[in-house]
Structure formats: C-alpha cells, structure tokens
Amino acid sequence: MPEWTIAEANAQISHFSAEKHILATIPGLLANAEMAIESAFLQKFAKITPQYPGVRARLDESASQSLAQQLSPMLSDTFDAPEGTWSLVAWYSLVTSAPQQLLPIQRLPHVDGTDPNQIAMMLYLHETEHGGTAFFRHKSTGLEALTENDFPRYRHALQKEVAETGMPPARYVTDGAPLFEVTHRVSGNFNEAVFYRGNILHSGVIDNDAPLSPDPRKGRLTINAFLRPPQ
User: Fold this and answer.
1) Which domains does the chain possess?
2) Is the pTM of this model over 0.85?
3) In the β-sheet with 133-138, what is the strand arrangement from edge to edge?
4) Which of 13, 76, 92, 103 has a CA that sits 20 to 30 A from residue 169's CA?
C-alpha cells in the first residue's frame, strides 16, 4: 500500500468560539501511518526556525504533491476556495526543547502568518502524554485571529503588557494565562489530522512534566503543513 495514500478524506466540519472559526477534522487520515513513522525515522532532523521548539525534516516533493492532490477537493469545499490542486509544504516535526530552554517567543501562542487563506494542517503521529493543539484569544484586544491590519494593534498591546508584567515563565503554553485564554482544544489522537486557518492564535499542547524524546517512534511526532488554494 503506498505510504501517502489517504484512507479517509471526508472531514468532520465544526466551528469554535464566538468567531465561528472553521475546524476540519479527519480521524485515521493515512492508510498506513506506521510507514510514515518509519519514513520519519530515516530523515535528518534539524532546527530550522527559532519559533519551533524542536527539530524538523522537510517532506519530499512527491509526498507533498500526493497529499495535496488527495486533500484538495475537501479543502476547496471546506474553506470556500476555487477548485484545483492546492500547494502544500510540509515537515515532520518533533518537539524536543525542555520547558526551561524555551525562548520568549516559544512561551506564547502564535500564528503562522496573517493571511487567512493559508490553511494549516496538523497530523498527529504520536501516542505520548502530549496532546494536540489549543486555540487562544488575546484578552486585552479580544483578537483570536490576526490579519495584516490587526497585527500592529496586537503587537503594540502585547509589547506593552510584557513590559509591564514580564514574560511568562519558561514553560509550554497551557491555559494561556494571564494574557490569553483558551477558546478550543483538539485532542490530537493518533493519525488524526486537523485543518484550520493559520492566522488563528494557537499552540501545541505539551505536557511540561512529560519527557520529550528525539526518537520519531517515541516522541511527539507530527506532520505540519501549510496549504494555499489554487490561483
């Protein structure tokens, strides 16, 4: 069975918070998730960006194209986009940084960009004590998603708050206190994929007291992707 065959592409569509953000969930996405994990074990992981608290390995082009072609009909239908093949860039990702090692930017919820047309995918390929993904509201501005117009106001408010109260302690985001509050959580079950607009404030759900193994077969392994609709 081909490694990148999708077993089920019919998403369960839901909405969360008063903003009615779209969340598409596909349990059991890959027909053979174990093969994907074995493929991850053969990759060369490295630190790529300062934002991600761990290591990543880029999915090869053939795998990315295969996923994009199979997911595109669902994505266009769910996110009201033109028909056609979406672009997809994806990485194997392993959270490996201990809480006390976290940089200031890693202690806060984040967005993947300010373009609401960029869709994020998280595919959970682990069975650890760590969870899925949480979504947040910034309390003082009430913002849950950041657009190009919103970002300056959000940044100014956040900088002012951090200057007054200091950065959160070196721990993974849990409830978001005191500056943020959780609007929704997804559990991140094994081989479950979730899709959402990447400009929504979010963070991985990481147990600050559980080990973070660098072994893809033992650690918090995910495939995360950015998808853009056809032009």
Assistant:
1) 12-228 (2.60.120)
2) yes
3) 180-186, 133-138, 202-204
4) 92
